[in-house]
Amino acid sequence: MRVGYVIPVKESSVSGLVRASVKYAELLSTTFCNDICIFIFSPYIEQKITFNGFDILPISSFFHYTEGTEKLDLVHFHGGYIYDFYNMARICCKVNIPYIYSPQGELMYYAQHYKRLKKIVGNILYHNKFVKRAAAVHFLNENECLNGKHWCKSYFILPNIVEMSDRMIGVGRTFNSDKCPVFLFVGRMDIFHKGIDLLLLALYKVRANFSKNIKLFLVGPEHNSNDFRKIVEFIHRCDLHDCVSLLGLKSPEQITQIMNDVDYYIQTSRWEGQSLSILDALSAGLPCIVTKQTNMENLIRKYNAGWVCDLDAAEISNNILNALNVHNEYDVMSQNAKVLFRNEFNTKIIINNLMENYKRIIVNKNGRY
After folding, report:
1. Furthest CA-CA distance within the chain
2. Closest to 169 (Cα-Cα) out of 286, 300, 342, 27
3. What mean pLDDT, rounded, does the chain reach?
4. For residue 257, with 0-12 CB atoms within 10 Å meaning exposed, 13-18 middle and 19 or more buried, which class applies?
5. β pairing state of 136-139 and 244-248
6. How many other C-beta atoms can be found within 10 angstroms of the C-beta atom of residue 152?
7. What does the radius of gyration of the chain's CA atoms come to, in whole angstroms?
8. What's the pTM?
9. What is the pLDDT of residues 214-231, one digit of tens each?
């Protein structure tokens, strides 16, 4: 089986979307090394680069893999609203190569209303056709599926992958009431998408109702200079500079160490497909405070692994205060977070199911595999 992955890889930065997509490719290649060969293409590079052991090819190389002995059996697009994806999908249709589309949250309600005019134009010109012509749409969870299944004729649901490591083995954490509680957010500094405006306003409200010091670490790259400037201005205007630390972009190894040193994970996004940072936090035994729009509400509630809130600064602040005032539940919630991750994000099951979906789509195309 020859599969093409089309991923928005950039030389200068690595997003959660890229990290998740390449992890699929990596585990498929190692688990089914005799059955699958994966080629990765990016619309954002002009010459071959290497990323996580894979050669990433420019899309100018894609045409070589659409005919003859090099022809792909299947193409899997990751990400949304990239016009080059539509052009490549048209070629796939012409040469009878089925393709899968992973929107990574781009069909969610808030995502569709962000830069709404551009989305409406994009949907009319190319995106509607791109989605409807897909052999299947890959959703990351039930909530994303409920928001997006009306776009497509066929779909399947499989979550993102975070590989198990030593930190996921054993019992959860114990809360240390003698030290200042520390909250962590990991993601790009995008005020609207990631809800950083809501998070900082909630923290400002908490400061007025909590007598002890608290800390918030913001880890991730700048989204743009304007957003970053607004974040810095808000921190100083609300006198939060002593409790908010902007740590910038960190490596996965550095983030792992930071997670070992904090007490809670918090994410107040207005939309997500499925946040890898939340999965990382759960695997590390961190109780999580998340908005419903992160698509983690059902699992967090089911396992009692944290708190879920609406897109409202007052409600977010109340949940932060709840977390700070129930130390006796912390140890249980930490263990619950690890159990949630082990039960719901089993790498072997996810990869086997993904491979079965690939086989099914290829069989439906030509009656054989």
Report:
1. 70
2. 342
3. 91
4. exposed
5. unpaired
6. 20
7. 21
8. 0.88
9. 999 999 999 888 999 999
Condensed to tens digits (0 to 9), the pLDDT of residues 247-305 reads: 999 988 899 999 999 999 999 999 999 999 999 999 999 999 999 999 999 999 999 99
Q: What order of strands is seen across the sheet that includes strand 264-267?
A: 244-248, 215-219, 182-186, 264-267, 288-291, 306-309
Contacts of residue 146, defined as CB under 8 A and 6 or more positions apart, other chains included, come to: none
- pLDDT value of position 45: 92
Q: How far is Cα 9 from Cα 7, in angstroms, rounded to an integer?
A: 6
Q: Which domains does the chain have, with CATH numbers?
A: 2-161+346-366 (3.40.50.2000), 166-344 (3.40.50.2000)
pLDDT tens track for 72-113: 999 999 998 999 999 999 999 999 999 999 999 999 888 998
- Give the per-residue pLDDT at 17: 86
Joined tokens for residue 358: 């690939």
Write down the pLDDT at residue 15: 81
Residue with tokens 């996921």, as numbered in its chain: 168
- Helices vs. strands in the chain: H and E counts, helices first: 14, 14
| Nearest-angstrom CA–CA distance, 250 and 91 | 38
DSSP 89-108: HHHHHHTT--EEEE-TTTTS
Query: What pLDDT does residue 165 have?
Result: 55
| Residue 175 in this model has a pLDDT that exceeds 80 | no
Task: Please list the alpha-helical segments (H only) found in the chain.
Answer: 16-31, 83-94, 109-113, 116-122, 128-132, 142-148, 196-207, 225-237, 252-261, 276-283, 297-303, 313-325, 327-344, 347-366
pLDDT at 109: 87
Q: In the sheet that 37-42 helps form, which strands lie side by side, from edge to edge? A: 49-51, 54-58, 37-42, 2-6, 74-78, 99-102, 136-139, 155-157
In this structure, what DSSP letter does residue 294 have? G
Task: Look at residues 169, 160, 187, 167 and name the one whose alpha carbon lies nearest to residue 344.
Answer: 160
Taking each helix axis from N to C end, the angle separating 225-237 and 196-207, rounded to the nearest 10 degrees, works out to 10
